[in-house]
Amino acid sequence: MNIFTNKKNALLIVLMTAGHFLFAQIDKKATKETENLYNNLKLISKEHILFGHQHAMEYGHGWSNESDRSDVKSVTGSHPAVVGIDFSDFSGQSKENIEKEKERLKKNVIDTYERGGITTVSWHFKNPASEGGFYWKDGISTASMALIKPDGSHHQQYKEILKTIADFAHSVKAKDGKLAPMIFRPYHEFDGDWFWWGKKYTSREDFIAVWQFTVTYLRDTLGVHNFIYAFSPDNRFNSEEEYLERYPGDDYVDLFGMDDYGDFGRDGKYDPEAAKKKLKIISDIAIKKKKLAAFTETGLESIPNATWWTEILLKTLQSEKLELAYVLVWRNDIKSPTHYYAPFPGQVSVPDFIKFYENSYILFEKDLKNIYQNKFRLR
Fold this sequence. Notes:
The protein has 379 residues and is of the alpha/beta class.
């Protein structure tokens, strides 16, 4: 049985052993901590949603690299429940710099695990076959998904890059001797045309081939068993059929996600009805397939709307019977006076964000206990 309660009470959520669940995690050799996280996220999503922030522990508005600091904690007293990192610097630079980045992120992931938080990983993958970085740049970028798939000209190079990722996954061993689980979200927003892996530059068949190879090589060849795999287009779909157009199959995806800024105030445009419909689609798919769903990226840059958190985001999340494990807003830049998506002390939306934080539906890191065990409680 499972007992959900107001997050300010400390009633136990009793979870059955993972073996009794019907949830369809794709890695049958997943570590016990990864399996427990997966099952706990599924149960949490029935009554609550976790709040996440990209690069929350690495830097924030006007600061960087400070121990146990996040802009979210500065406002609420708690770190976000979900912390986003990125594998963007795991390729396309010197081995020395790659190793430095791996060590930096290793501490981040282990610290988050030991606090009881959750790490999700995006991958702004620098084009392995051309200049241009991860964005598509006309006249510079190459349509490289066809080149890195099995039998492609850059396939061996791709395998070496995945080996770097696997080495990192094997390195995040905490003080308890366990590997920290991570939600790995490769090739996000693939239905757009701004990344080199976007729909405009990649056939459906090539996208699926690369995705399937990525999962099987990491999991079955390189022995990575602490990943939960997230499938995350942008918001360019209006039906289940459109959402699943590039779906690689039930054996290759753990979590259905969506990135959506356009319906939440970007350029002053709000379309909550469209957002509700799309979130309902991914939630329903996850329920049907006994997998996870999450709102993998959203936010309003600079948060000029002082009640955005409760009047826009929270109302949208609670408007339907959704089962979403988490919602993640994008990063707070160190230097930019306008590029931020979570409030910091003095920002205009702070009072509303505190109301958002205090709502029993929303969970932050301090609300969780034993998320990696099969007896999990809300503090």
